[in-house]
């Protein structure tokens, strides 16, 4: 494997006295889909937030494309080329769909081609195009998830971190979301996918890590993990 | 009911509407700051009184009309508000309200006593050339100074609306107010936006001060009264709602003027507080507020 696009080394994160991450290390090469699976409260979202600079790790380093970005504020991390589709979608409910998308183009390097990116996003998500003048709060859960993904694309990231993109969505929409993730990857984007839907995410991932109580328990190719007895027992109930 | 009475009532309502527009601009500053950062600016009336004094000084010492010094005062207040937020208030965001209250109360006391030390306790007013001009519309007489102040207030509110709906920074501020986590996720620099917002709020109230001095003489002791008035207006209109602040300003302006006519001028605050209590009882989110936010 060549130099990793994202490399996390020995990351510790605390909320007060509670330790959320304990020496987490992982790497993602450009062009990969890497899944991080684990139970609720295993630290999956904490890991994404620590990488994004929303939470500040106590120890460890995060390197993106060779640059140490540990402790950078979240707006600089976005500027560096990391996109984030957050848990719970986090759209701006009182802003229109178009305004939400415009906010996605906050990183300065994404501004020059903003119009072209917008056209591409609206083409990719025709539902958003139909509802462009509607307040985002009036969209259905699935449409909001598409908006969150579209908004992230507006920032022209090289790496997208998806945090529980299937949470709370109807099964057909979940399939759609995974299809989109795969398609974005085929178009050249690197993906970090955090999911409790272990089966679906390991199926599309090149590699996966299992996060248990803030630590990396297992790692390997997606198919290998799916065949692993421990994973099958603990997460798939097989 | 004589027609004389009806005419003076119409006259009082007109006067109240005009004053109310300036009130609305003042309250808008408070509402913007609260709506975005959930910080209640307890130094609001004090900031406005400083604006009134600056406009008075410009007129007294430099012979500049408050209408002309207004943009300068607004710009100064924007910078001061930006600096105040990024240094003093920023560490208090997210802390319990009573701590924010103490901090802003301290700022308020410093400002009022600064005014007192520099300008003294006497009331100061601006005597403009147009002081006694008026416009007539049928039987109604519009006080020229008041009309100009009201029009300027409406124009500034319009500019503010354009700022929040047409510019990227304005939309970003609305986004950060709408969903803080969402703002972090898309990479908005929330601390900078907060400082900008406080700057905008301070500029609004500074501009309102420059307009207010043309209608009402200033003393340092007006400050607390205006802080309270701004609160009443914003709560009646709905905390965080821009339309609410403007409409609340008109309502309170009219109620004060009508109370002055029907009861006594000194009883005008009683009517405002009465409206406040009614709103809190019947529609606690305010006339234009959204429930549950």
What is the average per-residue confidence, as pLDDT of chain A, rounded to a whole number? 93
Could you please say which CATH topology of the largest domain in chain A applies here?
Rossmann fold
The DSSP helix count of chain B reads: 11
Overall geometry of chain A:
globular
Rounded radius of gyration of chain B (Å): 19 Å
Provide the gyration radius of chain A in Å. Answer: 17 Å
Give the H and E element order of chain A. EEEHEEHEHHHHEHEHEEHH
Examine the coordinates and then state which fold CATH places here, giving the name of the CATH topology of chain B.
ABC transporter involved in vitamin B12 uptake, BtuC
Instruction: Indicate the CATH class of chain B.
Output: Mainly Alpha
Distance between the termini of chain B: 44 Å
| Straight-line distance between termini of chain A | 32 Å
Question: What is the arithmetic mean of pLDDT of chain B?
Answer: 92
Major β-sheet annotation of chain A: 6 strands, mixed
- Determine the oligomeric state from the structure: heterodimer
Query: How helical, in percent, are the residues of chain A?
Result: 25-40%
Q: Point out poorly predicted stretches of chain B.
A: none
Q: Which superfamily, in CATH terms, is the homologous superfamily of the largest domain in chain A?
A: P-loop containing nucleotide triphosphate hydrolases
The two chains with the largest interface, and their residue counts, are: A-B, 28 and 17 residues
């Amino acid at each position: 494997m060549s130099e990793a696009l994202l490399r996390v080394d020995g990351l510790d994160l605390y909320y007060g006295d509670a330790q959320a991450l304990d020496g987490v290390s992982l790497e993602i090469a450009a062009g990969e889909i890497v899944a991080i699976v684990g139970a609720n409260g295993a630290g999956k979202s904490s890991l994404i937030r620590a990488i994004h600079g929303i939470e500040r790790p106590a120890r460890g380093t995060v390197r993106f494309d060779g640059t140490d970005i540990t402790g950078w504020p979240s707006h600089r991390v976005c500027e560096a080329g990391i996109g984030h589709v957050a848990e719970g979608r986090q759209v701006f409910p009182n802003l229109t769909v178009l305004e939400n998308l415009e906010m996605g183009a906050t990183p300065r390097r994404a501004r020059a081609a903003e119009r072209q990116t917008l056209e591409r996003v609206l083409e990719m998500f025709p539902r958003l195009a139909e509802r462009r003048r509607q307040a985002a709060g009036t969209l259905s859960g699935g449409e909001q998830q598409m908006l969150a993904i579209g908004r992230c694309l507006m920032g022209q990231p090289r790496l997208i971190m998806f945090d529980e993109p299937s949470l709370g969505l109807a099964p057909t929409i979940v399939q759609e979301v995974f299809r989109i993730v795969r398609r974005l990857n085929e178009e050249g984007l690197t993906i970090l996918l955090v999911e409790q839907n272990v089966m679906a995410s390991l199926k599309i991932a090149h590699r996966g890590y299992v996060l248990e109580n803030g630590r990396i328990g297992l790692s390997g190719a997606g198919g290998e993990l799916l065949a692993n007895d421990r994973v099958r027992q603990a997460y798939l109930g097989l | 009911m004589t027609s004389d009475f009806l005419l003076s009532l119409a006259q009082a309502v007109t006067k109240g509407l005009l004053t109310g527009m300036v009130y609305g601009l003042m309250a808008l500053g408070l509402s913007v700051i609260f709506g975005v950062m959930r910080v209640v600016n307890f130094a609001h009336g004090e900031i406005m009184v400083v604006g009134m004094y600056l406009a008075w000084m410009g007129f007294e010492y430099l012979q500049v009309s408050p209408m002309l010094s207004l943009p300068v005062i607004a710009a100064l207040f924007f910078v001061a508000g930006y600096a105040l937020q990024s240094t003093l208030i920023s560490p208090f965001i997210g802390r319990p309200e009573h701590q924010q209250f103490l901090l802003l109360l301290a700022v308020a006391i410093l400002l009022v006593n600064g005014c007192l030390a520099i300008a003294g306790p006497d009331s100061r007013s601006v005597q403009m050339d147009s002081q006694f001009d008026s416009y007539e519309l049928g039987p109604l007489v519009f006080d020229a100074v008041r009309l100009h102040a009201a029009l300027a207030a409406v124009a500034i509110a319009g500019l503010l609306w354009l700022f929040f709906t047409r510019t990227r920074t304005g939309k970003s501020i609305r986004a950060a107010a709408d969903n803080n986590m969402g703002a972090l996720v898309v990479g908005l620099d929330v601390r900078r936006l907060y400082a900008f917002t406080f700057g905008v709020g301070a500029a609004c109230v500074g501009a309102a001060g420059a307009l207010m001095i043309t209608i009402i003489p200033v003393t340092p002791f007006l400050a607390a009264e205006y802080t309270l008035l701004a609160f009443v207006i914003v709560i009646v209109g709905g905390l965080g709602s821009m339309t609410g602040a403007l409409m609340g300003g008109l309502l309170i302006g009219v109620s004060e003027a009508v109370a002055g006519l029907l009861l006594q001028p000194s009883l005008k605050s009683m009517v405002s507080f009465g409206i406040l209590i009614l709103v809190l009882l019947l529609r606690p989110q305010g006339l234009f507020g959204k429930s549950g936010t």
